[in-house]
């Protein structure tokens, strides 16, 4: 059976910017016969995410994800449908998902590595299993709940960087729902600013490419900042931390501004910022959602209800075709997406 797949063609190097040529589209063939425990799946949609940048290096720098291998099929979050099965847990027609879905049009996978999902949970929007009702939504919800110390009635202000991305756009909405009186997003275009305010209920948004971030933060956060959901790191985060209140909280979710640099994760802070954290007793704790998977089922159920009821609005950027995987990944790393970047592979 002929299929198309995407392999890692070359590595950008620890300080390199990824380009589509780092990926290569290939034709390959699947064996016609399944072994016990195997299922044949047809890929419906795939996800590209910032954490994948470290998988392009020989050493990811973190213990919980492995590097992609040269000339081997790339993998990540995916959703598909079972076409045939020799696994008792999977039947033909089941919709299934995995964190380690190969970037192939069809694949033979172990049934035990797949999670069956119910399309009704997302009103048929199957790509939401890769975003707002998947690992991205979990990261936003549990990040805010476990590290944000949001308290109803406490007049708190939340700032989110990378706010128009898949995780940030949900995190700000969770902050508002959980009791923050203000949620201010920082993003990179006027279109993103409009999406955050008009579609996601943020109080305001700052275009970091055009606006004076310190001045805008002072204007939009007159009572200071109590919770900072950090997706970007670097200079933007230093600017936010400088305006945080005593006993406030940084949720260290991602550092996308640093991912193309050869620095440890999380990257070191300047002495000045470290002193600000100490002087104001600001907690800044790394958040890794995989450490909280015991809470995942209840959180995913809540996210499903919030999305279906319209309390959380989902932003998505979708392109079609497995040949677009490299382009979509590189565009996402440069902020070309609004919300979750999805690649639709088949219907």
From TrEMBL:
<feature type="domain" description="Oxidoreductase N-terminal">
    <location>
        <begin position="5"/>
        <end position="117"/>
    </location>
</feature>
<comment type="similarity">
    <text>Belongs to the NADP-dependent oxidoreductase L4BD family.</text>
</comment>
<protein>
    <recommendedName>
        <fullName>15-oxoprostaglandin 13-reductase</fullName>
        <ecNumber>1.3.1.48</ecNumber>
    </recommendedName>
</protein>
<dbReference type="Pfam" id="PF00107">
    <property type="entry name" value="ADH_zinc_N"/>
</dbReference>
<dbReference type="InterPro" id="IPR036291">
    <property type="entry name" value="NAD(P)-bd_dom_sf"/>
</dbReference>
<keyword id="KW-0560">Oxidoreductase</keyword>
<feature type="domain" description="Alcohol dehydrogenase-like C-terminal">
    <location>
        <begin position="168"/>
        <end position="267"/>
    </location>
</feature>
<dbReference type="GO" id="GO:0047522">
    <property type="term" value="F:15-oxoprostaglandin 13-reductase [NAD(P)+] activity"/>
</dbReference>
<dbReference type="InterPro" id="IPR045010">
    <property type="entry name" value="MDR_fam"/>
</dbReference>
<dbReference type="InterPro" id="IPR013149">
    <property type="entry name" value="ADH-like_C"/>
</dbReference>
<dbReference type="InterPro" id="IPR041694">
    <property type="entry name" value="ADH_N_2"/>
</dbReference>
<dbReference type="InterPro" id="IPR011032">
    <property type="entry name" value="GroES-like_sf"/>
</dbReference>
<dbReference type="Pfam" id="PF16884">
    <property type="entry name" value="ADH_N_2"/>
</dbReference>
């Amino acid at each position: 059976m002929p299929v198309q797949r995407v392999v890692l063609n070359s590595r950008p190097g620890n300080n390199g910017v990824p380009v589509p040529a780092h990926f290569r589209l290939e034709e390959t063939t699947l064996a016609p016969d399944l072994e016990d425990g195997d299922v044949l799946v047809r890929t419906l949609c795939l996800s590209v995410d910032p954490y994948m940048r470290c998988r392009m290096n020989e050493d990811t720098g973190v213990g919980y994800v492995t590097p992609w291998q040269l000339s081997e099929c790339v993998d990540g979050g995916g959703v598909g449908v079972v076409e045939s099965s020799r696994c008792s847990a999977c039947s033909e027609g089941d919709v299934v998902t995995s964190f380690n879905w190969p970037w192939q049009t069809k694949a033979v996978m172990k049934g035990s590595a797949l999670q069956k999902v119910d399309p009704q949970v997302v009103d048929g929007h199957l790509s939401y299993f890769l975003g707002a009702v998947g690992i991205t939504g979990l990261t936003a919800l549990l990040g805010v709940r476990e590290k944000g110390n949001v308290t109803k009635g406490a007049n708190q202000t939340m700032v989110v960087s990378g706010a128009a991305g898949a995780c940030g756009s949900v995190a700000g909405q969770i902050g508002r729902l959980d009791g923050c009186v203000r949620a201010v997003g920082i993003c990179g275009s006027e279109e993103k600013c409009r999406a955050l305010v008009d579609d996601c209920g943020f109080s305001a948004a700052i275009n970091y490419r055009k606006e004076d971030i310190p001045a805008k933060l002072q204007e939009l956060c007159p009572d200071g900042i109590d919770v900072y959901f950090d997706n970007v790191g670097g200079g933007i985060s230093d600017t936010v931390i400088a305006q945080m209140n005593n006993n406030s909280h940084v949720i260290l979710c991602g550092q996308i501004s640093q991912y193309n640099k050869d620095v440890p994760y999380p990257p070191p802070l300047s002495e000045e910022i470290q002193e600000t954290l100490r002087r104001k007793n600001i907690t800044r704790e790394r958040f890794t959602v995989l450490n909280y998977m015991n809470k995942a089922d209840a959180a995913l159920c809540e996210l499903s209800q919030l999305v279906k009821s319209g309390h959380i609005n989902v932003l998505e950027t979708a392109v079609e075709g497995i040949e677009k995987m490299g382009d979509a990944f590189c565009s996402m790393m440069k902020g070309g997406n609004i919300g979750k970047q999805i690649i639709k592979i088949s219907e």
